[in-house]
Amino acid sequence: MKKYLFALLMFGLLAGSQSWAEPWQAALDANLMATQNAYSNSWTGGEAGSMSWATNWNFVAQRQFNAKWHSKNTVKLSFGQTHSQEQESNRWTKPAKSTDLIDLESLWRMTLGLFVDPFAAVRLETQFLDASQTGNIRYGNPIKYSESFGAAKSLIKEKNRELAVRLGASFRQQTDQGVIVDTAGTKKDFTGNNGGAEFAADYKTPVGSDKITYTGKLSVYKAVFNSKKDELAGLPNQDYWKAVDVSWENGLVAGISKYLMVNLYLQMLYDKEVDLRTRFKQTLSLGLTYSLK
Questions:
Q1: Neighbouring C-beta atoms of residue 94, cutoff 10 Å
Q2: Which of 24, 33, 57, 112 is the most buried (most CB within 10 A)?
Q3: Any domain includes 43
Q4: How far apart are CA 282 and CA 53, in angstroms?
Q5: Which of 179, 220, 178, 171 is nearest to 195 (CA)?
Q6: Which of 112, 102, 30, 28 is nearest to 62 (CA)?
Q7: Are 126 and 138 in contact (CB under 8 A)?
Q8: Within-domain flag for 38
Q9: How far is C-alpha 4 from the chain's CA centre?
Q10: Highest mean pLDDT: which range of 72-76, 82-86, 158-162
Q11: pLDDT at position 46, please?
């Protein structure tokens, strides 16, 4: 599968190298947020010190190689931790993750002047640190590969405002490595794959002024086959994989000054195989920022 991913990327690169019509357009948004509080031994309120930090990196590079090929590559990196102090001993506990994400995607579109553009995309999703099992720290795990192809269309294409949608077939492979499966510490790797239909929409627009930007991404996926179908037969969750998966991300960034910003992030996730309930994540932060456009 990894060979397939690299082959698709190289194919698009070679196809576009015949004519270098436009330069790369790159944009980078990076920020760092931190909060800290501490109390003296004479403090009688019962509070405990804490410190938290998080950093987010969003990079987009796109290029129209020639009249027929357009490439868009995105990189999303996030990591943060929270450190807490015990009230009685004042001892600092081990840091706990507050956010963790590695998301890489490469999208190639054939700009043929049709009503819609044929596209092919590859995506890798993982995290820096997997601490889901106590005493079994793993890095770059679990990993999900996605390959998709279909039709794409830009409904809005302006200088600071863009809405693009995609609809097509998607194939996914998941790998969970080094999972402890018994009390003896035996480790085992788990893999699986599925495929189905996927709809995706990306929207970006200024809000009120150029200093406030909204970014949204909606993904809807419906699996039609699953490699673990036979293993799940007869179990209460045997049909959970058939449920529609939804991911809706919303980001609002307000620039207070050149290097200071406020960031509000909201995410809604629904994956019945993970949890029967809808999952929500909200982050509000004030911190340093750097943009390259």
A1: 8
A2: 33
A3: no
A4: 15
A5: 171
A6: 28
A7: no
A8: no
A9: 21
A10: 72-76
A11: 65
Report how many domains make up the chain: 1
Q: What is the pTM of this model?
A: 0.85
CATH code where residue 195 lies: 2.40.230
Q: Given pLDDT bands bounded at 50, 70 and 90, which one contains residue 16?
A: very low
**How many Cα atoms occupy the beta-carbon half-sphere of 247 within 13 Å?**
10
H or E stretch at 14: helix 2-16
Residue 218 CA to residue 198 CA, distance in Å, equals: 10
d(CA 117, CA 112): 7
Residue 10 identity (one-letter amino acid): M
> Confidence class of residue 6 from pLDDT cuts 50, 70 and 90?
low
Q: Is residue 42 part of a domain?
A: no
The domain in which residue 72 lies consists of 2-33+50-292
Query: How far lies 151's CA from each of 44, 162, 170, 178, in Å?
Result: 63, 17, 12, 38
Tell whether the model's pLDDT for residue 267 goes beyond 90: yes
C-alpha 12/C-alpha 69 separation (Å) is 8
